[in-house]
Structures are given as structure tokens and as C-alpha cells.
Amino acid sequence: MAAHLLVLLLAYTVRYHALIYPVISITVIVFCPFSLRVKIASGMIMAGMIGGFMIYTTTVNQQVMGTRQFSAFSGWQMASNAV
């Protein structure tokens, strides 16, 4: 379970499109034969790790750019990819 959380966090730091991965992971964990305690704990840890990273990214962007935003590069990167 810890390895899975680490892989999710690494994938999330590389691509913000990985926001969908925790939803898929939680769906899989719900249908696995784990105890209810393990299912709830893994979901809470997963949400906490991703939420913490989002708060960290937002705070750093606010310090650097002066405005509170989640992703510093998604706007121009998405526009460039569309061209």
C-alpha cells in the first residue's frame, strides 16, 4: 500500500493530469478484500498526501508570483500544446 501511495505522489508531481489517479485507486481499493479500517485509512492518507501537495504548490506560487494559483505552468503549456 505504501508503494502505491508513493507511485501516486510521484506521478502527481510530474503531471497534474494525475488528479484522476486517486479516484481510480480509491475505486479499486473499495472492491479489494481489505478490512474497512484499511480502506478508510488508505483513502485518507491518499487524500492527505495529494491535498498537502496542492496546498504546498499553491503557497509557493503565491510567494513567487504574488497571486494564489494552483499550477504556475498549466495556462501557457496547454495553449502551446494546442498549437
Q: Give the % helix.
A: over 70%
H/E element order: HHHH
Uncertain segments: none
Shape: elongated
Distance between the termini: 40 Å
What's the number of structural domains? 1
Give the helix/strand class: mainly alpha
Number of separate strands: 0
- Helices, by number, come to 4
Largest β-sheet summary? none
Nearest-angstrom radius of gyration? 15 Å
Percentage of β-strand residues: under 5%
Overall pLDDT level: 79
Describe the structure.
With 83 residues, the protein is mainly α. It has one domain. 76% of the residues lie in helices and 0% in strands. Helix 1 packs parallel to helix 3 and helix 2 runs antiparallel to helix 3. The protein is elongated and about 45 Å long.
Task: Present the secondary structure layout.
Blueprint: H1 2-14, H2 21-31, H3 36-65, H4 74-82
Features:
single chain, 83 residues, mainly alpha
Gist of the model:
The chain is mainly α and 83 residues long.
